[in-house]
Amino acid sequence: MKELKLMKGNEAVAEAAIRAGADAYFGYPITPQSEVLEYLMAERPYERTGMVVLQAESEVAAINMVYGGAACGKKVITSSSSPGISLKMEGISYIAGAELPCVILNVVRGGPGLGTIQPSQSDYFQATKGGGHGDYRLIVLAPASVQEMADHVKLGFDLAFKYRNPVMILSDGVIGQMMEKVELFEQMPRLSDEEVAANYPWATTGKPAGVPHRIITSLELDSSKQEKHNHHLQEKYRKIQENETMYEAIQTEDAEYLIVAFGSSARISQKAIDMARAKGIKVGMIRPITLFPYPSEIINKLADQVKGILTVEMNAGQMIEDVKLAVNGKVKVEHFGRFGGMIPNPEEVVKALEQKIIGG
Amino acid sequence: MAETFDRPEIRTPENLVYSKTNVLTDNIMHYCPGCGHGTTHRLLAEVIEEMGIQSETIGIAPVGCSVLAYNYFDVDMQEAAHGRAPAVATAVKRLFPNKFVFTYQGDGDLAAIGTAETIHACNRGENMTIIFVNNGIYGMTGGQMAPTTLPGMPTSTSPYGREVATMGNPLKITELIAQLPGTYYVTRQSVHTPANVRKAKKAIRQAMENQKLNRGLSFVEVVSNCNSGWKLSPVKANKWMEDNMFPFYPLGDIKVNGELVK
Prior knowledge:
The complex is a heterodimer of chains A (360) and B (262). Chain A is α/β, with parallel strands linked by helices and 360 residues long. Chain A folds into two domains: 4-194, Thiamin diphosphate (ThDP)-binding fold, Pyr/PP domains (Rossmann fold), CATH 3.40.50.970; 248-358, Rossmann fold (3-Layer(aba) Sandwich). Helix content of chain A is 43%, strand content 20%. In chain A, strands 3-2-4-5-7-6-13 form a seven-stranded mixed beta sheet, with helices on both faces. In chain A, strands 10-12-11-14-15 form a five-stranded mixed beta sheet, sandwiched between helices. In chain A, helix 1 packs across helix 2 (35-43) and helix 11 crosses helix 14. Chain A is globular. The N and C termini of chain A lie far apart (52 Å). Chain B has 262 residues and is α/β, with parallel strands linked by helices. Chain B has one domain (20-260): Thiamin diphosphate (ThDP)-binding fold, Pyr/PP domains (Rossmann fold), CATH 3.40.50.970. In chain B, the strands form two sheets. Chain B has an eight-stranded mixed beta sheet with strand order 2-1-3-4-8-7-9-10, with helices on both faces. Chain B has a two-stranded antiparallel ribbon with strand order 5-6. In chain B, strand 7, helix 7 (194-209) and strand 8 (217-223) form a beta-alpha-beta unit. The mean pLDDT of chain B is 96. Classes of the chains: A alpha/beta (360), B alpha/beta (262). The A-B interface holds A 23-24, 26, 52, 54, 56-58, 60-62, 64-69, 71-72, 74, 76, 90-91, 94, 98, 193, 204-209, 213-219 and B 25, 54-58, 60-61, 67-68, 70-71, 73-81, 84, 87-92, 94-96, 99, 116-117, 119-120.
């Protein structure tokens, strides 16, 4: 039976975490995502499923709790917003290096620095290009609705465990705070300790007699072995690129112009497309659902069809670099953005399309 | 995998006066000769063996000299980021409440970069064991000043001695965390003489046994030497430790059964 609820994006993530059979959430309050921790504390998931919820002393502690829990083969999730995610970056690098599965939600706010508590997409580079130190990649999901906030938690855990890789849900203050109806998936059981030990033999669940002890580490003092480990990681990232790229193509069949936008910007751009089409402008959109791996192939293909591409982002121009790499000079690519917590309106997007792409 | 001992010719029955616990691997330890880490590792490993909890124990190694502790303890091990072991261990214990969880940390890791994680894990009363090896110096990185470096003590970053006015006072973190209601057992030991080794082992045993009680965190400081960092021979380092470290960091129980020792 369908279970429809009216929820904030942040609440949907919290409820989805319980239903996905998560074993633990570790977090620290920061606007605009504190509802995740508040919802979980109010919901008493320990009584519902046995899930642990803990308010840590800092984002640094929270992400290291995620490391410890994930190293035990447990389903662990954390959430934060931009300045807090910066604090988590050390831990995220260690998690990537040690190949641990987990889900990290970033409800992005404007920066740099303490910035603003209003929505932004200015952490695109941080999420997709590294953020922490070393050659690593996160799988990055970009929800554009409260429904996807919930669904990406489940998808995120699936991908995290499939590849033993951290997954980031790159949301923003709009999606986190807005209320929409959401169809919740059914409660999934948490794995028992025995199931965890059987499913994840790499995990530190307590060394069975006669079995070599398990070591979770990102350290390798022999640089030739570290290079080998890095090759292994790169090979994994290539597989992720081959198999997990997701996007939504909207009215691209007859498109003469293309918008590329993710998350809130895609929602706004969709309205802009309706307005432009009413004016007779044939414009379509690619909405990347995964930001890593990036849907370069479809964008490259559409570059043969359209006369120009506009990226719409709530930042000063970050994803445009990936679009330009995908297009490889075939057509003009321009950026339209509002930032520092400002949200573009559809009229501005249509105007930017007319001025920068059609007229330009 | 590190090098292992391979001298079968000396392993004859008449030569065997002592056997190594099977909770230590055969990997050759990288610790300097005379360093207290090897003994402290052995004591913890023996306790794990004697309690019969090898398959139920999960250990967290820090960043510092004992960063490679996971190569020596034959239990499931995680290597944590610098200072974060108490946070990592918190999650392990919360998710496996019936398993035995320890962190093994040095002074820079526990009392400088990881101060927040240490204090909050202690304050929450996480039901785990922290082994804290305090030698007053950063050994792994080559002898820099630590939070526990004594006043006037020279290190590579306090070459004229620790000047309290500009470099601050040594931090008695063990006394500090003993004040927190979340700690159940807090003690300071050493492993530089056979008598002290026996006492330290008893303390470590107590700290691990306490996890069965679920009454809070057990914390064992081991004041140790660092003959490489202190630029002293092992024998002189131990003497220096007795003369200088112990007056500042007196040995003995600080908190027992949740009560401060008067």
